Amino acid sequence: MNGGPLLGAHMSISGGLGKALLRGSDLGCNTIQMFTKNASQWRERYLEESEIAEFKEVRKKVKINPVISHSSYLINLASADDELYEKSIDAMLHEMQRCELLGVNYLVIHPGSHRGRGEEYGIKKIVQALDGIHERTKGYRVKITLEITAGQGTTLGYRLEQIARIMNEVVESSRLAFCLDTCHAFAAGYELRTVEGYEELLREIEEMIGMDKLKVIHVNDSKKDLGSRIDRHENIGKGMIGKKPFQWIMSDERLKDIPKILETPGFGKDLEKDRVNFDLLRSFVRL
Ligand code: ZN
Ligand code: MN
Ligand code: MN
Hints:
TIM Barrel; binds zinc ion; about 290 residues; alpha/beta; single chain; globular; binds manganese (II) ion
């Protein structure tokens, strides 16, 4: 899809990091998202020189740009437990290092969960953690990209105001970006099924965060209803959001250059898993 909008999916790294690029290329992606390690384990992954070289070589061949990484689900930069907090910061530093070595452009992270200590407390911890991480990764090009969340439990980042506050309070805020996840935003209470609601959401992003900060869009339908604050992704058009908002997103001139990444359950296995959602989204493009 040369010249078309940036469209990709979260790709498996099974068999090696370079495989994620090849899988994406086979599907027709010009951008992808991947993990750089097993995202549900603390165990770190150290990259071999050969693995880095291979990744870069494959990337040149398949022309996938930007490359996005999603950080481990275990990381909680709002944790009140000192041990878990330090462990989370350490894990983020490893994520940053791997991204930098591979030339990954954006590292998506869920801001964090305060686990009962309150939103004010949580936001302060997140800002402090991000400042510390930036301090220890001077000169890195990879940008930490804060994702809007569904607001499940005591999770932070389900209001744009919270993301905006974190961005404003972090010292090196120019090193931060924003990721809009349609499923999360909808579950958090942002009505994007009406033209008015969709426009209001974009206006709020523009006013509170800035369009220039919006660097990744996760395109997912939602199994759960508006304001449910439950994070359950659904295939495009099969959930509570429906097809229309995705048609708007895919044809919105303002979002043309922002990578759109599928994180949907999909249909079938392996490469075929994302085919239906990918082709459907591509058919929505009217630019
Ligand atoms: Zn996420
Ligand atoms: Mn997401
Ligand atoms: Mn999610």
